[in-house]
Amino acid sequence: MKATLRHGLTLLLTMAMLAVSVSAHAERQVLDRVVAIVDDDVILQTELDARVNTIVGRLSAQGTGLPPRQLLEERVLEQLISESLQLQMADQMGMRISDNELNETLANIARSNGLSLEQFEEQLAEEGVTYQQAREQIRNEMLSGRVQQRRVGNRVRITDREVENYLQAQAGRGPDAEEYRLAYIFIQVDDPGNEDSVEQARAKAENLRQQIIDGRDFREVAVAESDAGNALEGGDMGWRTESQLPSLVAPVVPNMEVGMPSEVLENNSGFHLVTVMDKRGGEQQTVIQQHRVRHILIRPSQAVTETQAENRIRDIYQQLQDGANFAALARELSDDPVSGSDGGNLGWVSPGQMVPAFEQAMMEADVGEIYGPVRSQFGWHILQVEERRQQDVTAENRESQARQAIYQRKFETELQNWLREIRDEAFVEFKGDYADLNPASEENNAS
């Protein structure tokens, strides 16, 4: 879990603190030392050890083989560096997660797993994670997610032609009869313009595929070798319907046997392996529940802090509870200019059209209820479901699913590119046992 020393922390101060610790506890080894400097932040040995132990516990519980400890530490350290860079961006952008929002998120996580908060805390304890550690990790993940949406989401553009082509490609396959739980390995090409670099990555991917065929666990290989963002989760991509499969693997997944790796797949970013861990039946839903909903949005910005935005939305909520006119307040105060000009009206909304936090609130709200405040990636909302209906929206639903699938595929690609960019642009210096990871260390030694 994250425990950072921010803004103005110097290595001298850190070493002084460690010196006091050594003096007071000379009989034991001091572990709380700096292992990396990342721009204005540092990563401590205790942070690294805690994250490694958490991952080892999770993978062991899944029965996934583990790579050598040193390799795992290096990969986890890179993960912590990426998280640190994103959290520093969130801090610079003034992003905050309030305690109220964090509590609501934790309650939702517990509820989605069929647990009370007390049971959720007990389960965490069994996994060696305190409730406070879980709170901070989830807070950090929420902040990172918002930074990604802000910086990466605006890179993604979807055209009507792309949607049409996607739907045409799906035509003739019939309704989705199965869902697939996938795992994924990505081998990045260091220099796409260099033929030797490309062939090196191809050979590595082919070699890993053969190891998996010979019996090595796919998830173990993902943890040890994959360059994808989900490597330390064993490459798990979760459940996907056929319409949600990334375009690169869509032609091969439906014909794959469970547990077998695909052929090595290639695109502009590198080489890929995918496996189907499980399959299950499913039916395409053509009659769905729609909600006619309106909302008021207050968006944090450079001029409006997170706390100010939350206070403002809670004040609006109280005004509505006291009898204020919803449409009038939406026109006057909402930061959504399109719906605000129409009294907050969003029209009829189908499942999947709204971001998860808003959709969950919409599903929970009673018809006519003033519901909120709710925090999404766009800001703070108050919403009101005015009506619900069952509607046959086969064509509309297919188009919405197509747009989501295209967006997700493009977002994942752009996210990997962006993470690589911010890592390349950052100042990162490894310390102590990890100093030989510094790119210039060999040159320094040679000189």
Overview of the structural elements:
It holds the Pfam family Rotamase_3. The chain is of the alpha+beta class. The chain is 48% helix and 18% strand. The protein contains 15 helices and eleven strands. The strands form three sheets. The protein has a four-stranded antiparallel sheet with strand order 4-3-6-5, with helices on one face. The protein has a four-stranded antiparallel sheet with strand order 8-7-10-9.
In what order do the strands lie side by side in the largest sheet? 4-3-6-5
Low-confidence residue ranges: 1-30, 441-447
Please give the radius of gyration in angstroms: 24 Å
Beta content comes to 15-25%
How many distinct beta strands? 11
Pfam families: Rotamase, Rotamase_3, SurA_N
InterPro entries: OMP_Chaperone_SurA (IPR050280), PPIase_dom_sf (IPR046357), PPIase_PpiC (IPR000297), PPIase_PpiC_CS (IPR023058), PPIase_SurA (IPR023034), SurA_N (IPR015391), Trigger_fact/SurA_dom_sf (IPR027304)
Enzyme class: isomerase
Subcellular location: Periplasm
Topology:
Blueprint: H1 11-24, E1 34-38, E2 41-44, H2 45-62, H3 69-92, H4 99-112, H5 117-126, H6 131-151, H7 160-170, E3 178-188, H8 195-213, H9 218-225, E4 236-241, E5 265-267, E6 270-281, E7 287-298, H10 306-321, H11 326-333, H12 337-340, E8 345-349, H13 356-364, E9 370-376, E10 379-392, H14 394-425, E11 428-430, H15 441-446
Antiparallel strand pairs: 1-2, 1-11, 3-4, 3-6, 5-6, 7-8, 7-10, 9-10
Helix pairs in contact: 2-3, 3-6, 7-14
